[in-house]
Design brief:
heterodimer; A: mainly beta; Protocatechuate 3,4-Dioxygenase, subunit A; nine-stranded mixed β-sheet; 5% helix; B: mainly beta; eight-stranded mixed β-sheet; two-stranded parallel ribbon; 28% strand; globular; Intradiol_dOase_core (chain B); oxidoreductase (chain B)
Chain lengths: 240, 206
C-alpha cells in the first residue's frame, strides 16, 4: 500500500480535555487548542509487535496469576474484533487490558480500598489480534468500586483497554462497560463523552452464542480505530 | 434522505485512570506477572548514533508534578527510519523505536535511554528536524496527549522544521525543545511537559 493519511479524528465524539465533573481534569487539561498536524511518516507508523513479545497464557486472567486455585468471581470471556472506520480488520495488533477483581479492588500498591485482594488474580492481560482482527480474553467480571470525586462516586464495572493499531495516530486507551449496569449513567468519567452513541459503543454486550455452557459467560466488545484514506489521486504525503 | 455513509465510528477514548501501571507496567504496580514488560528497551544493542538520556516531569496547572503518568515514545533511528514497513528504510536488528515509561510515584520524574534520532523526511519533501513523538496518559487526561520533543543542539534544523514553524506563536515553540546538558559524559535532554497554564506545552491533534 502506498503511504496514505488517516482520517481526521472526530473529536466531537471523544471527551474534551476539560470536564469539571471529573475533577482531576481541571488541573490536567491544556487551556490552548491542540495544533492540528497533517500526517507525516512520524504519524502513519507505529510499533510492531510479534508473538515473541508475549506468552500464550497472557490473555487468560483466570490462570495467569493463579497460585493455588482459580480466582473468585464471575468467569467471563471477553472477545471481539479490532476494526478500522472502513470496517477493515486490524490484524496482529497488541490489545492490553487491566481491571479490578470481583471486589472492585486493584492489585496496585496505591489502591487502599477495603474490598479484598484475590491472591489468585493479577488483573492484567494482553494478546495480539489474529489475521481477522479477532481477539479474546478469559477473565473475572470486575466489581464496581468507590473513588474520591464526589463523596459518593462509584465507577461502573469496567475493564481498561489499550490498543495500538498500525500507526501512532491510532493509539487509543479506553474503558469497556457491561450491558445493563445501572452505574453507567451516573459516572462522571463516562459522561465526559458528549455523544450518547459513542457511550453506547463502549458497552460490551452479553453474547450468549459465545458463552461456554456450565463454564463462562461471554461479552462481545468490538474496538474501532481510525481509518485510512485511499489514495485516489495525488498523494501529497510522499511528496518528494 | 441522502445515502447513508457506512463508515464505523472510532471508539471513544477514556482516561487511563490511576492504575494504568497494572496493565501496562505491572512491575511498577508492585507485582510480577509477565515474562517481559514491553517498552523497556527502545534502541537495542545494535543501534547506531549517539546514546542519550531523556528525562523530565509532567507538571499540572497548579505547578505540581503529576505522579501517575504513563508516557510512550515513538522515534526514528539515527538514519531517520522508523521500525515499521512504511518507516522510510531499514533499521538495525533490535531497534524498536518505541518505549514506555512511568513517572516515579514519589517525585514524578520520568526518563529513558535511547539513541538520538536522525532527521526524517516530512511532507512535500521538507525534512523534519530530529524529534521524539510522545504520548501521555494518566488519571484526569481524558484522551492521550500527543507532543514532540526536539533537541536544543539542532537549532538550524529546528528553525527549518515544518511542524515547529506551523506554530504561529513563536514563544510557544520553545516548549517543544529538550535542553541538552552532559552528565558523566552522557548527553541528557531535559524535557518538562506543562499540561496547563504559563508556558503550557504545545499538544498536537495528529
Amino acid at each position: 500500500m502506498k503511504p496514505a493519511e488517516y482520517y481526521q479524528r472526530d473529536r466531537t465524539l471523544h471527551p474534551p480535555a476539560l470536564t469539571p465533573d471529573y475533577k482531576t481534569t481541571t488541573a490536567r487539561s491544556p487551556r490552548y487548542s491542540l495544533i492540528s498536524l497533517q500526517n507525516s511518516v512520524s504519524e502513519i507508523t507505529g510499533p510492531v509487535f510479534g508473538h515473541n513479545d508475549i506468552d500464550p497464557l497472557d490473555n487468560d486472567l483466570v490462570r495467569n496469576y493463579a497460585k493455588d486455585a482459580d480466582p473468585v468471581g464471575e468467569r467471563i470471556i471477553l472477545h471481539g474484533r479490532v476494526l478500522d472506520e472502513n470496517a477493515r480488520p486490524v490484524p496482529n495488533t497488541l490489545v492490553e487490558i487491566w481491571q479490578a477483581n470481583a471486589s472492585g479492588r486493584y492489585r496496585h500498591k496505591k489502591d487502599t480500598y477495603l474490598g479484598a485482594l484475590d491472591p489468585n488474580f493479577g488483573g492484567c492481560g494482553r494478546t495480539l489480534t489474529d489475521e481477522n482482527g479477532y481477539y479474546f480474553f478469559r477473565t473475572i467480571k470486575p466489581g464496581a468500586y468507590p473513588w474520591r470525586n464526589w463523596d459518593n462516586s462509584w465507577r461502573p464495572a469496567h475493564i481498561h483497554v489499550s490498543v495500538f493499531g498500525a500507526a501512532f495516530v491510532q493509539r487509543l486507551i479506553t474503558q469497556l462497560y457491561f450491558e445493563g449496569d445501572p452505574l453507567i449513567p451516573h459516572c462522571p468519567i463516562v459522561k465526559t463523552i458528549p455523544d450518547p452513541e459513542a457511550i453506547e459503543q463502549l458497552i460490551a454486550r452479553l453474547d450468549l452464542n459465545a458463552t461456554v455452557p456450565l463454564d463462562s459467560i461471554a461479552y462481545k466488545f468490538d474496538i474501532v480505530l481510525r481509518g485510512r484514506r485511499s489514495t485516489l489521486f495525488e498523494n501529497r504525503l510522499e511528496g518528494n | 434522505m441522502p445515502q447513508k455513509l457506512d463508515y464505523l465510528r472510532e471508539t471513544a477514548s477514556q482516561t487511563a485512570g490511576p492504575y494504568v501501571h497494572i496493565g501496562l507496567a505491572p512491575g511498577a504496580a508492585g507485582f510480577d506477572i509477565y515474562r517481559q514488560e514491553l517498552g523497556q528497551d527502545i534502541a537495542g544493542p545494535n543501534a547506531g548514533g549517539e546514546r542519550i538520556r531523556v528525562e523530565g516531569l509532567v507538571i499540572d496547572g497548579m505547578g505540581s508534578p503529576v505522579k501517575d503518568v504513563l508516557l510512550e515514545v515513538w522515534q526514528a533511528n539515527a538514519e531517520g527510519h522508523y521500525a515499521h514497513p512504511e518507516g522510510g528504510g531499514p533499521v538495525e536488528d533490535g531497534f524498536r523505536g518505541w518505549g514506555r515509561v512511568i513517572t516515579d510515584f514519589e517525585t514524578g520524574e520520568w526518563g529513558f535511554d535511547t539513541v538520538k534520532p536522525g532527521a526524517v523526511m516530512g511532507r512535500n519533501g521538507r525534512m523534519m528536524a530530529p524529534h521524539l513523538n510522545l504520548w501521555i496518559v494518566s488519571r484526569g487526561i481524558n484522551i492521550g496527549l500527543n507532543t514532540r520533543m526536539y533537541f536544543s543542539d539542532e537549532e538550524q534544523a529546528n528553525a527549518a522544521d515544518p511542524v515547529i514553524s506551523l506554530i504561529e506563536w513563536e514563544r510557544r515553540r520553545a516548549t517543544l525543545i529538550g535542553k541538552r546538558s552532559d552528565r558523566d559524559g552522557i548527553p541528557v535532554y531535559r524535557f518538562d511537559i506543562r499540561l496547563q497554564g504559563d508556558d503550557e506545552t504545545v499538544f498536537f491533534d495528529i
